[in-house]
Amino acid sequence: MPPRYRIIVDLSQLMLHLLEGDTVVKSYPVGIGTIASASPEGLFKIINKQPNPGGPFGAFWMGLSKPHYGIHGTNRPDSVGKRSSHGCIRMHNADVLDLAAKVSVGTEVRIRK
C-alpha cells in the first residue's frame, strides 16, 4: 500500500505542504538552506525517523534519501521562516512532531523552488 501522504517543500515560499492525494491538508513554515549551503531540489523519500535526536535537530528528525539531509525540529525557533540551515528543512518543534505523527518511512518528499 503506498503512503497516504506526500510532502512538497516550496523553497520560494519557505513552506512545507502536506498533501493527501492532490489536496493540501496542512502547511507549515520552514527554514531552508542558506545561499552557500542551499537545500537540495528534487524528489526524495523519508528513510528514517528519530525522536529526540539531540544536538540542533530539535524534537524530531526525519532523514531523507539524499544522505545528510532531513526534515527536523530546531532549538532555534527564530530560524524558521529564513534561509538559516546547512540545507536541511527546519521546522518548529510542535510542527515537526505533528508532521512526524502523520507520515511514515517511504513518504515522498519533493523539494522545489
Report how far apart the termini are. Answer: 29 Å
Low-confidence stretches: none
Question: Radius of gyration in whole Å, from Cα?
Answer: 12 Å
**How many structurally independent domains?**
1
- What is the fold named in CATH at topology level? L,D-transpeptidase catalytic domain-like
Keywords: Acyltransferase, Transferase
EC number: 2.3.2.-
Enzyme class: transferase
Organism: Paenibacillus mesotrionivorans
Overview of the structural elements:
- β1 and β2 (15-20) form a beta hairpin.
- 35% of the residues are buried.
- The protein has one helix at 93-102; strands spanning 5-10, 15-20, 23-29, 32-33, 42-51, 60-64, 70-72, 83-85, 89-90, 108-112.
- An 8-stranded mixed beta sheet has the order 3-2-1-10-5-6-7-9, with helices on one face.
- The longest helix has 10 residues, at 93-102.
- The mean pLDDT is 96.
- It is built from 1 helix and 10 strands; from the N terminus they run βββββββββαβ.
- It has 113 residues and is mainly β.
- It has a single domain, classed as L,D-transpeptidase catalytic domain-like (Beta Barrel).
What secondary-structure arrangement, pairings included, does this model have?
Blueprint: E1 5-10, E2 15-20, E3 23-29, E4 32-33, E5 42-51, E6 60-64, E7 70-72, E8 83-85, E9 89-90, H1 93-102, E10 108-112
Parallel strand pairs: 1-10, 4-8, 7-9
Antiparallel strand pairs: 1-2, 2-3, 5-6, 5-10, 6-7
Keywords: Acyltransferase, Transferase
EC number: 2.3.2.-
Enzyme class: transferase
